[in-house]
Design brief:
Length: 333
């Protein structure tokens, strides 16, 4: 069973330690793990904090470029195992030649500092998916969790309150149109609820919520409401199930594969099988309280889906076909 994972933060971990390499490591993702477990494509996010106090004269645009350089150095060192893709035909070519594909993404639209020219240059560097926000308000939009104002989202330390007021800015709308034009997938994970509905209004191509779950199953603002899922279906997009403990279960218990599948079952029953994918968030989440602890466990997820009665075609759609459809719609050239 082939696998496309729409989100991991592995490059961010490599940035912290020069001794770590992408080929084989003790992280949740490395290339050996991906190859052994039949991955087709891994999206590598350049996770960039919009605001950092620990780096003097910090500039998110500059730091993102450093991360992209790190990404390409690692990919080039391992071209016997993996090749970057820039269009849909590149993916097909890698499948034909039994090569693992990597897709470059950015997790924080604020790295563009509101400059459309920066967006176009990131495209030229190979970026094919961007989350409009992470957990800070930027020039494009506002998130559901704002680290500069957490009190607006919490009650008794728990995050419940989505941002229903602050949507896309005028610059954000401009970016949505330009991303559609260029062929960059718009990722609404982290985006506030109002911003999500704005993207649905202005985007003429299918979008993704690359690493989110169902808010009906687990009441966390990083997850999607049923109404948002209906709008995602109308758009033709895909939600990638996130394996993070806090997004899968409402309490402190150990998060099992069954807990993750509850989200898949709910979304399937609500809007159908054609809008579900995988977005593990590996190396961006802790794994001490989750059964899906790293890429080696993916075969157990697939077997569990069979136990739940999902057909082989349904599992193919969840694991890779639905995401391929969205990629084809965004950058088929």
């Amino acid at each position: 069973m082939r696998i496309i994972d729409m989100h991991c933060d592995t490059i961010n971990e490599l940035m912290k330690d020069d001794k770590l390499i992408l080929r084989q490591n003790d992280l949740m993702i490395d290339l050996v793990k991906l190859r052994k477990n039949d991955y087709l494509l891994q999206c590598f996010a350049m996770f960039v904090r919009y605001i950092r106090d620990d780096i003097p004269n910090y500039n998110p645009f500059e730091y993102c470029n450093k991360m992209i350089d790190k990404y390409y150095i690692e990919i080039e060192k391992n071209k016997d195992l993996i090749r970057p893709v820039f269009c849909y035909n590149d993916i097909l070519d890698n499948i034909k030649n039994n090569r693992l594909s990597s897709l470059l993404t950015i997790e924080e639209g604020g790295v563009c500092l509101g400059n459309i020219e920066f967006l176009r240059n990131f495209y030229r560097l190979g970026v094919r998916m961007i989350t409009l926000t992470w957990n800070y308000k930027n020039e494009l939009a506002s998130p559901n969790i704002d680290y500069t104002n957490l009190d607006t989202h919490t009650r008794d330390g728990l995050i419940f309150y989505p941002n229903l007021v602050d949507g896309l800015t005028e610059k954000g709308i401009e970016f949505v149109h330009e991303m559609n034009k260029l062929g960059i997938v718009i990722d609404c994970s982290h985006l506030g609820d109002k911003g999500f509905y704005d993207v649905i209004k202005y985007s003429n191509k299918p979008i993704v919520c690359s690493h989110s779950c169902s808010r009906h199953v687990c009441n966390h603002v990083r997850n999607m409401t049923d109404d948002m899922l209906f709008k995602l279906k109308d758009n033709g997009g895909v939600v990638g199930i996130n394996f993070c403990h806090d997004f899968c279960v409402d309490d402190d218990r150990f998060c099992t594969i069954d807990d993750c599948i509850k989200h898949i079952v709910h979304i399937r029953d609500l809007i159908g099988i054609d809008y579900i994918g995988l977005g593990s968030d590996f190396d961006g989440i802790g794994n001490s309280k989750i059964e899906l602890k790293d890429a080696t466990v993916m075969p157990r997820l697939i077997e569990k889906l069979r136990e739940y009665g999902f057909s082989e075609e349904d599992i193919d759609k969840i694991c890779y076909k639905n995401v391929l459809r969205v990629f084809k719609a965004n950058f088929d050239y």
